[in-house]
Amino acid sequence: MSFYPQPAQQSEKRIIHQCPVRAPAGLLGYLDSLHTISTEQEDAIDRTEVEKVGFDNYMKDKYIALDQDKCWFVYQTCLATGARNVVEAGTSFGVSTIYLSLAVQQTIKLRGGEGRVIATENEPEKAARARSTWAEAGEGVADLIDLREGDLRETLKDGLADIDLLLLDIWAPLALPALRLVEPHFRRGAVVICDNSISSADRYADLQAYMRDPKNGYANLTVPFKNGLEMSVYLGRYGGT
Ligand SMILES: C[S@@+](CC[C@H](N)C(=O)[O-])C[C@H]1O[C@@H](n2cnc3c(N)ncnc32)[C@H](O)[C@@H]1O
Q1: Does any ligand 1 atom lie closer than 6 A to the CB of residue 151?
Q2: Mean pLDDT value across residues 10-19
Q3: pTM of the prediction?
Q4: Ligand 1 touching residue 148 (CB < 6 A)
Q5: Which of 128, 90, 86, 120 has its CA nearest to residue 104?
Q6: pLDDT tens by residue, 104-114
């Protein structure tokens, strides 16, 4: 169940009222259009073709962006927590990354200092599309993004510090390895958000078992967006009891 009706079902007024993102109307419209394409592609997924060509191959030219209401939630969480160092596991064409960049920009405006969004993408063509999406978005979106191309199990090994938020929007088998690479760099109170935590619970069994084991230091909440969205707070290993 989604908290919000999908944009197509909303009146213009409701969308503007509910969207927390501070950005020019042109950029908000651009984001709406990217979500529309992504949703249309997902609605048209041909399961037979996926089986025939393989999941990764089939998804190579698809956005598979995080749903728009979830992007708004991630943006709002970044603002609420003052997140300035953010990691995104799974970037694709870079839609959710735009929200992360806008949120970090807003935090820098409010509180000063610096920040960056570390994005990760394995497919070279997707990485190239993400860069052009960010350039088209304008508003300095690209300036804060450090896109790490290649397998995140390699690209997240170095160059992380004081991470405030990790977005797990990645193929399920990669989620726990990504978390374990970033975890040593979490500040206490860092937030981890994982998509599809209800619909893909069986595929996230290793991640959820790890995060729900109290000794690993996470406070977990399943937020009832469509297909579930897990929001966890890192209290520190053996901490927070
Ligand atoms: C669900 S999509 C991300 C969507 C993106 N967060 C958005 O909202 O626009 C997951 C992405 O992870 C990428 N991916 C898969 N395995 C990866 C790996 N080992 N390292 C880095 N990226 C990977 C896929 O190519 C895919 O584009």
Answers
A1: yes
A2: 58
A3: 0.92
A4: no
A5: 86
A6: 999 999 999 99
